[in-house]
Design goal:
With about 230 residues, the chain is α/β, with parallel strands linked by helices. It has 8 helices and 12 strands. It has 2 domains: about 120 residues, Response regulator (Rossmann fold, 3-Layer(aba) Sandwich), CATH 3.40.50.2300; about 100 residues, Arc Repressor Mutant, subunit A, CATH 1.10.10.10. The strands form 3 sheets. It has a 5-stranded parallel β-sheet, with helices on both faces. It has a 4-stranded antiparallel β-sheet with strand order 6-7-8-9, covered by helices on one side. Helix 2 runs parallel beside helix 3 and helix 6 packs across helix 8. The longest helix has 16 residues.
C-alpha cells in the first residue's frame, strides 16, 4: 500500500476536503491545514513526499510558503493551486520554488496525474552525483553548478531544467518532453515559459567570453553540448 505523505494547504474547506478525500482514496497519507503559517510549520516538522498549496491563503500565501520552504532547505515537490491564469503568475510561482502549477477549477484526474508526475520525478532522480559537459559541472546532491571555477546560482526550476539537459548531453530533448518532466502533465506547451527559462540559463552560463552550452534546435527542442 502507498504510504507516501502529502500535505494540503487550502483555506477553502470544500476544496481542501475534496482534495484530501481524493488523495486518501489513492492511499496517500494526507495532512490538511488551512493557512500558510500552518503549512510552513508542518513542512518544518514532517518530511512530506509532496505538498499541494493554494496560492491565496491567510497569514502566508502559497508563494511565500514556497520561498520560505526553499530558503529553509526543504526540497519537497510543491504543486500550487490557483485561480490565476496569466502566464506571468505561473512563472512567478515556479520562480518561487514550486514544481508545478494547477489552475482552478481543475479536473480530479489531472490533479492526480500531476501528483503522480511530481512523485515519480522526485523518486527517479539521477543517482549520478556530478554531471559534466565541457567545463560545466552540476552536482545533483549539493545542487551546485559551476562553469570552470565560477559558481552559477540557479533557481530550482533553472537547476532542474539544466539537470535534465545535462543527463543526456548532445541529445536533443523535445519541448513536450521538457514540459512533461519539469512542469508535469498537460502544462500549456504553447506558452513561453520554457523559452524564458532557456534564456535565463544562457545568460547565467555564458558570462563574458564563455562559449555557448545550451543550444536550440529550431522546431525540435534543446540540447546541452560542449562547443
Amino acid at each position: 500500500m502507498d504510504t507516501r505523505k502529502v500535505l494540503i494547504a487550502e483555506d477553502d474547506s470544500s476544496v481542501r476536503k475534496a482534495v484530501q478525500r481524493v488523495l486518501e482514496l489513492e492511499n496517500y497519507q494526507v495532512t490538511a491545514v488551512n493557512d500558510g503559517q500552518a503549512a510552513l510549520e508542518a513542512l518544518s516538522k514532517t518530511r512530506f513526499d509532496l505538498a499541494v498549496l493554494d496560492v491565496m491563503m491567510p497569514f502566508a500565501d502559497g508563494l511565500t510558503v514556497c520561498k520560505e520552504a526553499r530558503h529553509r532547505g526543504i526540497d519537497v515537490p510543491i504543486l500550487l493551486l490557483t485561480a490565476r491564469v496569466e502566464v506571468g503568475d505561473r512563472v512567478a510561482g515556479l520562480d518561487a520554488g514550486a514544481d508545478d502549477y494547477l489552475v482552478k477549477p481543475f479536473v480530479v484526474d489531472e490533479l492526480l496525474a500531476r501528483c503522480r508526475a511530481l512523485l515519480r520525478r522526485n523518486a527517479s532522480a539521477s543517482s549520478v552525483t556530478v554531471l559534466r559537459v565541457g567545463d560545466l559541472t552540476l552536482n545533483t546532491l549539493s545542487r551546485e553548478v559551476h562553469r570552470g571555477e565560477r559558481e552559477i546560482m540557479l533557481t530550482k526550476t533553472e537547476f532542474d531544467l539544466l539537470e535534465l539537459l545535462m543527463q543526456q548531453p548532445g541529445t536533443v530533448i523535445s519541448r513536450d518532453t521538457i514540459y512533461e518532466a519539469i512542469w508535469g502533465y498537460n502544462f500549456e506547451t504553447n506558452s513561453k515559459s520554457l523559452d524564458v527559462y532557456i534564456g535565463y540559463l544562457r545568460r547565467k552560463t555564458e558570462e563574458g567570453t564563455e562559449s555557448r552550452v545550451v543550444y536550440t534546435v529550431r522546431g525540435v527542442g534543446y540540447t546541452v553540448k560542449a562547443s
